[in-house]
Amino acid sequence: MGARSPEARYQEIERWLRRRVLDATPGDPLPSESELAAQFRVSRMTARQAVQNLAAEGLVQRRRGAGTFVAPRPIHRHEGSLMSFTEDMRRRGMKASSRLLEAGLRPATTADLEALRLPDGARVVAISRLRLADDVPLAIEHAALPAECAGVLADDLETGSLHESLVARGYVPALSRAWIRARIASATAARLLEIPARSA
Amino acid sequence: MGARSPEARYQEIERWLRRRVLDATPGDPLPSESELAAQFRVSRMTARQAVQNLAAEGLVQRRRGAGTFVAPRPIHRHEGSLMSFTEDMRRRGMKASSRLLEAGLRPATTADLEALRLPDGARVVAISRLRLADDVPLAIEHAALPAECAGVLADDLETGSLHESLVARGYVPALSRAWIRARIASATAARLLEIPARSA
DNA sequence: TCAAGGTAGTTGTCTAGTCATTTCGCAGGA
DNA sequence: TCCTGCGAAATGACTAGACAACTACCTTGA
Asked: Nearest by CB to B166, which of A164, A187, A190?
């Protein structure tokens, strides 16, 4: 069977495991591939793919002959650390994605000029992306970068990372040189509200 | 067949592909899974594993229906598709930090209203932070959230994560998804998803 | 000339197994 | 008590298929 549904079976298992990992403590055993296969009514190879993906991420540890276990110190490193939307969602067992809304050049606003220390009349690369968690729009990101960074437009911002694009193109100084200033305006939208608590 | 030899078949194919990638230029096509399977006399699933491993490393790019190609930047390999600013900086041995510039309420712009699907006249929580790498300003982030999220202002955004603050306050619960879906479904004009189409 | 449609090729997902290798608990004996 | 060997269970590797979804290309028709 192909990918007839928006989510593949192994991805479903993956998400289920992710949630389990979150509620577990490092070292805890996870269901074996066979158990997962039986539980989700799939073949072992399909269940295996889910576990392997998590292992590749470092969330779980696989020990041949023994089993699969929650990886030691799953995370937790905030010292002034800002987790990315994607990372955050992923750890919550949700599928994070982003959709490119707009990308192009526009004149810089006065705020842009000041923040980026650009000369009057400069233009900026404007990029807008919609962030989704489990295909539900959760946030909108607007980014404005100096026109010198226009090269990032050629990259695949649908699925890739803006930071990565910048770094790959050498716009982030390896040494403290400030010739790169990116102004990234990020409008994070969180759909809150306390609707009736309904169990997931 | 099990791993009777020190090297598995898929690892052999992986090495062969690695060499090819090194001698190729970004964008070059690589043999298809079927070709690899025939060449190495293995099943397609085995050849596939080799290619997938390289794709996970970022060495090659896979495009459904098209083929597998040498990744744009063989030098710079990532494992995660989306790296956070902090993570990216840390890999470069730089210290990532952020400084709170501004936080308060302001009227939502029309863009905010549309993106977040807020009623006219709504206000948003605006948060501006400066991101630094080794104390060198690299980016400015402006976040706009619905006014209901105002509680996050009380948190220490200087050192903490915005996402974490939101989550801690229950603003990004899985529970809200149903509500969001309903809201989207009712908005028939929510066709902004098709608008963007921009190719590399 | 240009657009629509078909088609071959490629990746994505999945099945239902097999065999190899490793780990670990447990029974049984010294 | 110790420890040795056996076997169950788990992961690792692999097969030989299948269908689905997508892309690039080419043909056909207006």
From this structure: A190
